[in-house]
Amino acid sequence: MRITQGTFSYLPELTDGEISAQIAYALGNGWPCSVEFTDDPHPRNAYWEMWGLPMFDLRDPAGVLHEINECRRAYPDHYVRLNAYDAGYGRQTTALSFIVHRPAAEPGFRLDRTETADRRVRYRMHPYALDRPAGERYRAR
Amino acid sequence: MTGRLGFDMRATGSDGSGDAPGPPEPLPPDARVDLARAEAESRIGQVLDALDGELVGLVPVKTRIREIAALLLVDRLRARYGLGTAPPNLHMCFTGSPGTGKTTVATRLAELLHRLGYLRQGHLVAVTRDDLVGQYVGHTAPKTKEVLKRAMGGVLFIDEAYYLYRAENERDYGQESIEILLQMMENHRDDLVVVLAGYRDRMDSFFASNPGMSSRIAHHIDFPDYTVEELEAIGALMLRRDGYVLAPRTEPVFRDYLERRRRRPRFANARSVRNALERARLRHAARLLAEGGEVGREELSTLRPEDFLASSVFTDTALSRNERI
């Protein structure tokens, strides 16, 4: 199941040229970019691992794209996303965030039905990938 | 999302590619292109003229920059005929005495390469050893990479690059910085132009101990020292920019000053001229205040011989004294 998170998630995968254009847009607005990766893409998992520090004072998308490619090379079986942070007063939040790399196979999620006290039913979302230890979750078997 | 189209989605991937126009059709082989028009369209003439007008002397430097500009222009025309050329290697090394205009030329170069479409942004990031080399293990690589990323799309100007390599200390982190630099210079050739600058003899020994660096730099440009006439012209340019004039009697004094100053130690070409003019302005202001009375536009902007003659260059003949002028 293809995971959809962040901006452009319903579009086909962006090419490097299109990613560069988005980075250029972010830099043009003065938003510093950062690269993050994870192998636990649960929708509530907001804290992905940081790939280096956020990149400040950049003028050209090539530097950000370089880091994205480095991260892809180091973690080919992980999800990689790009964040652009708007530090302007009144916003001070992530302005743009999208997935730039995903593992080859995405097994998806299932719903676990649990009965709790007083016959109430609770559902929890369980990623199949989480059955395997961290770091190997999306590696090809 | 198993093949089912969501709300407002399109079936094909035409969204991303639709707004980017493809490369124009190559010109037919028998087409002719007007070189003068292509040159005028790229507006490089303005930058080259500014280089000629605002920088005095430096003939070998200007020649080389003109050649580079011509090469990039021709490459662009070749691309229109579909003749593919690898992007040229434009990493450079500027050697010369202090104050010969290395930084100024680097700024102009960034602008020029931007106009020619070689650099996307055309900014200049000027750094020294401190900005590239870290203080403890594992600090250097992120620091160097951060600077390199900041410089992408522009020119990275490394002043006094020979300090990166310290021959006497083999554990110095400078070597690590040089390796990262070399790797990025090779892999990101079309994103970044690296300019190393420094004094001639020390750059030579730096390259002798880092042959990989020397071979990756295509252009070794030497900045000659200025002659007295050129220094005078530089002084005149600086004065005009600051709104001062020399009284007619001051001109020979100024020339005499430059000749004497040139023979003294720690002479820094254009920078020394600037410092001399700064001090002349100080004396000029002090003199005006001491004289009192009324002043007009002419008095406020005219430097007289005594503003220069008070300098220690004229009073003190001992060459070993410090530059207290």
From TrEMBL, chain A:
Gene giving rise to this polypeptide: cbbS
The entry's keywords: Calvin cycle, Carbon dioxide fixation
Organism: Actinoallomurus vinaceus
InterPro entries (UniProt xref): RuBisCO_ssu, RuBisCO_ssu_dom, RuBisCO_ssu_sf
Residue ranges of domain Ribulose bisphosphate carboxylase small subunit in the record: 4-103
Subunit structure: Heterohexadecamer of 8 large and 8 small subunits.
Misc. remarks from the entry: The basic functional RuBisCO is composed of a large chain homodimer in a 'head-to-tail' conformation. In form I RuBisCO this homodimer is arranged in a barrel-like tetramer with the small subunits forming a tetrameric 'cap' on each end of the 'barrel'.
Its biological purpose: RuBisCO catalyzes two reactions: the carboxylation of D-ribulose 1,5-bisphosphate, the primary event in carbon dioxide fixation, as well as the oxidative fragmentation of the pentose substrate. Both reactions occur simultaneously and in competition at the same active site. Although the small subunit is not catalytic it is essential for maximal activity.
HAMAP family (UniProt xref): RuBisCO_S_bact (MF_00859)
Native organism taxonomy: Bacteria, Bacillati, Actinomycetota, Actinomycetes, Streptosporangiales
Name of the protein in its database record: Ribulose bisphosphate carboxylase small subunit
PANTHER family, per database record: RIBULOSE BISPHOSPHATE CARBOXYLASE SMALL CHAIN 1, CHLOROPLASTIC, RIBULOSE BISPHOSPHATE CARBOXYLASE SMALL SUBUNIT
Assigned protein family: Belongs to the RuBisCO small chain family.
Automatic annotation (TrEMBL), chain B:
Region (Disordered): 1-30
A Pfam family this chain is assigned to: AAA_lid_6
Gene3D superfamilies xref list: 1.10.8.60, P-loop containing nucleotide triphosphate hydrolases (3.40.50.300)
Keywords recorded for this protein, A-Z: ATP-binding, Nucleotide-binding
InterPro entries in the record: AAA+_ATPase (IPR003593), AAA_lid_6 (IPR041627), ATPase_AAA_core (IPR003959), CbxX/CfqX_mono (IPR000470), CbxX/CfxQ (IPR000641), CbxX/CfxQ_RuBisCO_ESX (IPR050773), P-loop_NTPase (IPR027417)
Lineage: superkingdom: Bacteria
Presence of the UniProt keyword ATP-binding in the record: yes
Ranges of residues in domain AAA+ ATPase: 88-227
Cross-referenced CDD domains: AAA (cd00009)
SUPFAM superfamilies (alphabetical): P-loop containing nucleoside triphosphate hydrolases
Similarity remark: Belongs to the CbxX/CfxQ family.
Protein name (record): CbbX protein
UniProt gene name: cbbX
